[in-house]
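re the bet — no i am not wrong, look at it urself. input seq straight from the record:
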Amino acid sequence: LTLDGPTLAAIFQGHISRWDDPAIKKLNPGVALPGRAITVVHRSDGSGTTFVFASYLARVSNDWKNNIGADTAIDWPTGVGAKGNEGVAGNVAQLAGAIGYVEYAYAKQNHLAHAKMINKAGQTVQPTVETFKAAAASVDWGQAEKNAYYVLFVDSPGAQSWPITATTFALMYKNPPDAKATQDALKFFQW
């Protein structure tokens, strides 16, 4: 199945509620799509995964940006909430017609099918280490370092870029019990 950002946003808003919707059919010519209801599965807890996913949807859909926005916790207009990536993965695996978002490792571990996405360059890509690297290639890492390594690179340019890619967040104690170990870890991240 192939999706694009605006269609994905419409699904997670509940505007597209069936797999045989004309918008999905248009992106998948020749594919026999079931007349089944779509069950959206989302995080019920706050998370960086939600922040990255919602940031992507806000970047590609003005309707999402203006009505829902991007944050670690979202007031979801539709769907079933589940705790953690493992909860979303479990629900997607068990519910017929479900769609959700999880980190790549959870999709792989749970043998979940994934959608191909049409990226900013108009190319259809799959989530792979290579497409994640392609998305990361356009990042200004010097600017990221100035912002405490915080950078989002959703909807990155490049023919091979996976559109929903982000760094992993590492949290450190403000007042660590072992200051030297913390400094060593920060030096590692800087390296």
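see?? The chain has a mean pLDDT of 93. told u. also Strands lie at 2-4, 39-43, 80-82, 98-100, 116-118, 124-125. so pay up
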